[in-house]
Amino acid sequence: MGYSNQATSTGRRPRAGARTYDFRRPVRLAREDAHLLKVAMQTFGRQATTVLTTSLRAVSVLSLIQVEEMSYDEFLTGLPEASICAVMSLEPLQGKALMSLDLSTLMVMIDHLLGGRGVDEQPERQLTDIEQMLIRHLMGRALREFAYAMEPIAVTRPQLLTLESNAQFVQAAAATDPVIVARMQLVMGERINTMDLCMPYAMLQPALEQATRSQDRGEKQKQRSAAAAKTTRRLNDVEVDVSIRFDPIRMSSSQIGRLAVGDVIGLGHRTSKPLEVTSATSTFGYAIPGASGKQLAALIVDPQEQ
């Protein structure tokens, strides 16, 4: 017995495309947190651009490429062999952060700082004590701009702890711990370099959660205020019935039953007392009767005034 492939295919919903998931790199960084870090790193790039240009006396641009999450071991494995890691503390955040630059880039910076032209041919050796002091001073200025950029996330006091020529010796996190890496591009004249800023996720997590909660509270407050203003505008446009009445009196059923045309009912409302202006049994004003042209009218008055 045959069957129709067409009927079978049209009776099923198309499946969504498969997505690759790396179980060795579970996604921990929320989209909101990634956006906060991206904005902070872009701000740091703009601020550091001014510092580098004025310090090196050469047009320099530091810009963000991307913010990504990986394990600490993957970060270390991806570093160039000849690279220098600046180990930093970000008090009051717990832990250590790393700023990595290749040795040749640092040599070009030192050449500029000492009045040179920053040529590509630089010696391949470790930094001397004087060269380390020059780099420490330059990074100290850059870290002040980093603190400014991080203010939307947390108020930090960055401090350069040491310069390491071998990042494998820096125990900033366990090999499998997740870290947040900001890949940045450094342009000095015609030379294009890369700079990596690595921060353990455990260091940033409390500050990111607090910043996200504060942002959510601010956003929700704005939404509530906008909803309240919209409701107020709509309520102001709603038409309601308004009555102007004398003081009510009480009558027995027999009195009401004996009423006839021509009978006079004493209201007990003094002639000097204004009438009540009401809506839905609520009194919100007082008025005295009068006329406006050929129509009855009421003049709103202050009941305290005689």
TrEMBL record:
Residues 234-302 form the Flagellar motor switch protein FliN-like C-terminal domain. Pfam families: FliM (PF02154), FliMN_C (PF01052). Its main location: other. Residues 209-232 are annotated as: Disordered. It is found in: Bacterial flagellum basal body; Cell membrane. Keywords: Bacterial flagellum, Cell membrane, Cell projection, Chemotaxis, Cilium, Flagellar rotation, Flagellum, Membrane. InterPro entries: CheC-like_sf, Flag_FliM, FliN-like_C, SpoA-like_sf. The keyword Cell division does not apply. It is a peripheral membrane protein. Belongs to the FliM family. This is Flagellar motor switch protein FliM. It comes from Kineosporia mesophila. The gene is fliM.
